[in-house]
Structures are given as C-alpha cells and as structure tokens.
Design goal:
This protein is mainly alpha-helical. The protein has one domain. 76% of the residues lie in helices and 5% in strands. It is built from 10 helices and 2 strands. The protein has a two-stranded antiparallel sheet. Helix 6 packs antiparallel against helix 7 (116-141). The two termini are 24 Å apart.
C-alpha cells in the first residue's frame, strides 16, 4: 500500500504541470523569442513602433511565468514562507503590469493592420488574467488559503495561454498563416483555460481523497495485526475460557 501511494503521488497535476511548462519553454524560447539576442532580426522592424512598451510587458510577463510554478510547491511554501509570499507579490505585480500592456500593444497593432477582433481577444485575455489574480489576492488577504490556491491555479492557467498559443501555432504550422489563424488559436486557448484549471483542481482533489482512503485502510490493517488474538482453553472445572495471546 505505501508503494502504491508513493507512485500515485507522482501523478499529481502539479508535476505534470511543471513538465508541460518545461517542454513548452524549451520549444518557445528558441522558436519564438530568439530575436531577443539577435539585434538584426527582421521582426524588430515590426516591433520598433512599440518596443518600449514591449520591454516592461516582456519582463513582467516573464516574472509571472517563471515564478508562478513556485507558488504550487508545498515544500517551498512550508519551508520558506517569506520567499513564497515575496514570489507571490511579484507574480501579482507582474500580472497587473503585463496584462494591460499586452492589451495596449495589441491595440497598437490594430492601427498597423490587425483586425479589431484580435484586440477583443486580447481584452478578454487581459480581463481573465487580472480578474482571476485579483480574486486570488482578495482570498489570501482574508486568510482563505484553499480558495486562494484554487484561484491562483485559474490565474496561472490563463498565463499559460502565452506559451500555448505559440506551441500550437508552431507545431501545427498555423503561425505562417494570416492573423486570423493566430486569433483563432488565442480564442481556443482562452476557452479552455479556466476549464483546464478546474479539471486539474478536481483531479488533485480526487487524488487526495484516494490517498486518505488508502491511509485509513492501511491504518485499519495495522490495528488488526496489533490486536491480540484469543484462544480457548479448558479450566480445571471443565469450562472453556477465552485467553488473549499476542
């Protein structure tokens, strides 16, 4: 039983989340963000009109994406509470900087030819990210830790849309199509962001329930083994008596 419980712990959603984020970063950084280290990359001509808005947006968004997974580490939260709080504050600040700037940049690109519908998608993304993060912040300020963790999960699910859009577009070959193809991918990822977060939460709750049942069954089995057994013996008077033996 302990071995089974130990194996099932590796199937916890957060470990799958960390692995998925790592794989997406390994793909996205060289594929989509390599222009950051190549000053002569042609994409810079496109970014030139709003590059100074892109800088704080990129830094704040990177902080949120990199620090977000740390908030789901039970070990870090229990051993380094102050670090957990600081990382959480930086995450919240990153969200409230990166999200509105991301919308403004997309609105700026609308004036360069992008459709209004793409700006609406960016507005929905911004709203979802800021609202879920804001609700998580309110809950932790009120001391409701469980609700805070649930809304932080939803917030980070929305944050991952940045990576998901680039991975889907790149692997599917749709990034080379027109802007409407990229917009469709954004809407698709946004539609499933909150749903995927709730599925992860339910999976985690199911895993905890299974672990509790397993521990209770193991405890009951150990108590049965430790309980003294009884044997029947015959007294000198010929009466059967029950005696406990260990």
């Amino acid at each position: 039983m302990p071995t089974a419980l130990k194996r099932s712990s590796w199937l916890r959603p957060k470990y799958l989340l960390f692995a998925g984020i790592g794989l997406m970063l390994v793909y996205v950084i060289p594929h989509d963000e390599s222009f950051l280290v190549h000053a002569k990359d042609p994409i810079w001509r496109h970014y030139e009109p709003f590059k100074w808005w892109l800088l704080p947006h990129g830094i704040a968004g990177a902080c949120a994406l990199l620090l977000g997974p740390m908030q789901f580490s039970d070990r870090l939260r229990n051993r380094f509470r102050q670090l957990h709080r600081v990382a959480g504050r930086i995450y919240v600040a990153g969200v409230f900087v990166a999200a509105p700037l991301g919308f403004y940049i997309q609105y700026f690109e609308e004036r360069m030819g992008d459709p209004r519908s793409f700006s609406i998608a960016a507005a929905v993304d911004t709203g979802l990210w800021m609202i879920t993060t804001g609700i998580a912040l309110v809950f932790i300020l009120k001391g409701k830790v469980q609700e805070h963790r649930q809304w932080m999960t939803r917030s980070f699910a929305v944050a991952l849309v940045f990576l998901e859009v680039r991975v889907i577009g790149g692997l599917g070959g749709w990034e080379s199509l027109d802007v409407h193809a990229n917009e469709t991918i954004v809407w698709f990822c946004l539609a499933f962001a909150i749903l995927s977060a709730d599925l992860a939460l339910q999976w985690q709750q199911l895993g905890r329930s299974t672990a509790v049942v397993g521990r209770e069954a193991l405890g009951a089995a150990e108590r049965m083994r430790e309980r003294p057994s009884s044997t029947l013996t015959r007294s000198p008077q010929g009466v059967l008596e029950s005696r406990s033996t260990k």
